[in-house]
């Protein structure tokens, strides 16, 4: 082969084909759910990371409603709204961390958030709360409308996520406590 | 053996130069802004999570200083890729280390475009990006094959899922309209308007399905590969204007030079060169 035209050496060609075969096998099994297989093969369920890395699920299903996580804090016996965006400014395209569905379904993540809210309220806004409550509000989307707030009270569904006393402590990874 | 010779016949490699640059730029655009969230997200002392499969924070906890250094490592990787030559492939690895340490430290927000960038990085490592003067060279097709299969999985999987699981909602355009109203991913002025126009949402939905389901088959042929990629570019431009999915659109399109059939890429390159020299 010349310097201008080169390809994979002959001794490597069969191993490369085997590698590509393994890649195709991996991608197919990681995405089987897309072909009417609601559940991935049983052996892949033991390793959730298997489907996580090579599996793709983006804006595929129906998403008929909005949801919003809100918080309130008890300060001197009075409940007041917590400005979550001020306390936790980082924002991804999917919104802040705590607005994601799986986050609010994880008791551990919610405890971390609640305790961090107690601390940040004091550190950033000089507000000493003794109790924090988080809840999620859900309401339906309205096609074509800029105003997506619920117009009727009956459209709103509210669910409490956590009720947390700031005096409690919570264990973080590597034995840290807040 | 003749079969292997035909299969591994060298292909025009100029597209890898364009692809290397495109990849380095989108990697920098994705990784660069993380510096603004170091304290709150990547080296937070209170919002600390340990998430499967990495559990990074069980072993190491980044401080704002170490996280900033690691961010710098990721940026250095992007610059090495831009420099090219012998630094290009090590640059891909350096970028992967810099960006992934931050991602697994934050633990919760490893996005689709982060995984896609990693798939593309693996394709880059298999391609000939470490050489200069690629527009005059022919190289092994293995890197392109890898990229093709990664994108076949992405588009094919999402397309067939839509077609088989939610056919009515996708045929009517209702599902696409609902996604345009997502509180964070959606709610652009144009997207809100489109969500109320069923006559427009329906063809948008159909063309998305046609592209995603057609991609795994049509990308292989010289006659169709450029049309498929043109449709993909239009779809990603549509997503860019109608939704807010961060860098996903331009990360995906950055791989298109490598996905294009090498002969078509070569003729486009030659036409561009001809025009450039003609003007001189």
Low-confidence region ranges of chain A? none
Instruction: Note poorly predicted spans of chain B.
Output: none
**Number of helices, counting only DSSP H or I runs of 4 residues or more of chain B:** 15
Helix content of chain B: over 70%
The outline of chain B comes out as globular
| Overall SS class of chain B | mainly alpha
Question: Approximately what portion of the residues of chain A adopt beta-strand conformation?
Answer: 15-25%
Total DSSP E strands of chain B = 2
Strand arrangement in the largest pleated sheet of chain B = 1-2
Summed over residues and divided by their number, the pLDDT of chain B gives a mean of 95
Report the sheet with the most strands of chain B, covering strand number, pairing sense and barrel closure: 2 strands, antiparallel
Number of domains of chain B: 2
Determine the mean pLDDT of chain A.
Answer: 90
Distance between the termini of chain A: 64 Å
Ends apart, CA distance between termini of chain B = 47 Å
Q: How many helix segments of chain A?
A: 6
Q: Would you report the number of β strands of chain A?
A: 4
In N-to-C order, the SSE pattern of chain B is HEHHHHHEHHHHHHHHH
Provide the gyration radius of chain B in Å. 21 Å
Biggest sheet: strand arrangement of chain A: 2-1-3-4
User: Which chains share the greatest interface?
Assistant: A-B, 70 and 70 residues
How does this structure look, described?
The complex is a heterodimer of chains A (178) and B (280). With 178 residues, chain A is of the alpha+beta class. In chain A, 33% of the residues lie in helices and 19% in strands. In chain A, strands 2-1-3-4 form a four-stranded antiparallel beta sheet, with helices on one face. In chain A, strand 1 (65-75) and strand 2 form a beta hairpin. Chain A is elongated, with a radius of gyration of 24 Å. Chain B contains 15 helices and two strands. Chain B has helices at residues 2-7, 15-31, 38-42, 64-83, 88-106, 112-126, 142-165, 167-172, 174-179, 189-195, 198-218, 222-242, 248-254, 256-259, 262-279, and strands spanning 11-12, 138-139. The longest helix of chain B is centred in the middle third of the chain and has 24 residues, at 142-165. Chain B is globular, with a radius of gyration of 21 Å. Chains A and B meet through helix 1, helix 3, strand 1 and helix 6 of A and strand 2, helix 7, helix 9 and helix 10 of B.
